[in-house]
Amino acid sequence: MRVISKVTELHQWRAKTRSQNKTVGFVPTMGALHQGHFSLVEAAKSKCDVVAVSIFVNPSQFAPHEDYDNYPRDLESDLKKLEPYYQNVQDDDDFIVFAPSVEEMYPRGITLDIERQIGGFVEIRGLSLQLEGVTRPHFFRGVATVVTKLFCAVQPDLAFFGQKDIQQCFVVRALVEDLIMFPMKVVIVPTQRDPKTGLALSSRNVYLTDDERDNLAPMFYKGLKDAVAAYENKNERSAEKLLALVRNRAEKEGGLNIEYISLIEPDTLEPVVGNVGEKGAILCGAWRIGAARLIDNVLLGIPLMPKD
Ligand SMILES: Nc1ncnc2c1ncn2[C@@H]1O[C@H](COP(=O)(O)OP(=O)(O)OP(=O)(O)O)[C@@H](O)[C@H]1O
Ligand SMILES: CC(C)(CO)[C@@H](O)C(=O)[O-]
Ligand code: BAL
Q1: Which of the ligands is closest to the CA of residue 147?
Q2: Is 197 a member of any domain?
Q3: CB-based burial of residue 210 (10 Å sphere; 0-12 exposed, 13-18 middle, 19+ buried)?
Q4: Could you report the per-residue pLDDT of 61-92, keeping only the tens digit for each?
Q5: Largest CA distance in the chain
Q6: Which ligand 3 atom is at minimum distance from the Cα of 66?
Q7: Which of 222, 249, 217, 239 is nearest to 283 (CA)?
């Protein structure tokens, strides 16, 4: 499998795909690949002629106290796991991996201390400081910056993101629209879960003990499912009651250390006031368990991929 680490080489690859009139699907990742990532790769393969997967643990989305140093990294094992998707491509360049160094992505260097950072950074204001942004105020600036760089490097037709990181999907869609990157489009792929427990797959699940992974962490999704059942089967629309259902299961019964649970409007990400309206809503949250901080969400009354 061709692994490209330099942007200039990537541009040559892109020129070739363009000369062949092939559409390019792009799957950005931070590696430690799992079935969640593979579902994005499968979606990209099904919609595009050529697929590029990037593997890059992006420093600028981590605060100095977060897990940048410990984040799981194993390029060799990731490449092995991608082999089945590379098998039977017509041309070697129809499936590639972009695995740049930090220096390649941040030519002026990068420190996790925002005050001392120099160079170009991208902010998506209005969608970045609520929800995940409360605990991680630096996070979406780092994501928007690296995603912009990756989009400039790969120049995809379609880019694939997971619903698990729902706020990230909103930020990236706003980025594409506001920075006039269209006709490029963002495709959102449903969250992949452990078939037995329902726990959303996440690279950070490796931080959990077996008991945390199999018994405790899944209580959050159980709470989300309680709310979905009440919304769908009992016509429950009260924000207060839907949120209480999640809290009861995840916090009271499961004993999880909840950071936030929010019911938000699907366009503005503002909290639903009173009852869920015609537009539906997103129920999302984060919790800490052992050494991990995990997130999850479900959609109430809205199609899976609005705008697709
Ligand atoms: N369970 C999942 N289902 C679908 N997509 C997923 C899932 N987990 C991650 N993704 C998507 O894969 C892409 C790369 O994510 P990333 O490499 O950060 O993995 P991750 O498992 O989310 O890791 P982390 O533990 O850092 O959140 C993102 O678009 C993310 O939303
Ligand atoms: C989009 C992304 C690859 C940017 O580093 C990251 O935030 C992720 O993996 O979700
Ligand atoms: N999947 C989001 C990447 C992060 O939490 O840093």
Answers
A1: 2
A2: no
A3: exposed
A4: 999 999 999 999 999 999 999 999 999 899 99
A5: 59
A6: 6
A7: 239
Instruction: For residue 162, report the distance from its CA to the centre of ligand 1, in Å.
Output: 6
Number of domains in the chain: 2
Q: Which tokens sit at 68?
A: 């940048």
> Whole domain around residue 222: which residue ranges?
203-300
Same domain membership, residue 147 and residue 53: yes
Q: Of 26, 28, 24, 303, whose CA–CA distance to 165 is shortest? A: 28
**How do residues 125-173 score in pLDDT, each as one tens digit?**
999 999 999 999 999 999 999 999 999 999 999 999 999 999 999 999 9
User: What CATH number does residue 14 fall under?
Assistant: 3.40.50.620
CA-closest residue to ligand 1 atom 15? 29
Percentage with pLDDT > 70 across the chain: 98
Instruction: Indicate if 57 and 181 belong to the same structural domain.
Output: yes
Distances in Å between the Cα of 288 and the Cα atoms of 123, 189, 251, 294, 295 are: 27, 25, 11, 6, 9
Residue 195 lies in a domain: no
- The residues annotated with a catalytic role in the active site are 37
Read off φ and ψ for residue 302, nearest 5 degrees.
-130, 150
State the ipTM, two decimals. 0.97
Q: In testing the pocket of ligand 1, which one of 26, 27, 33, 37 has its CB within 8 Å of the most ligand atoms? A: 37
For the Cβ of 132 lying below 6 angstroms from any atom of ligand 2, the answer is no
Residue ID of nearest Cα to ligand 3 atom 3: 30
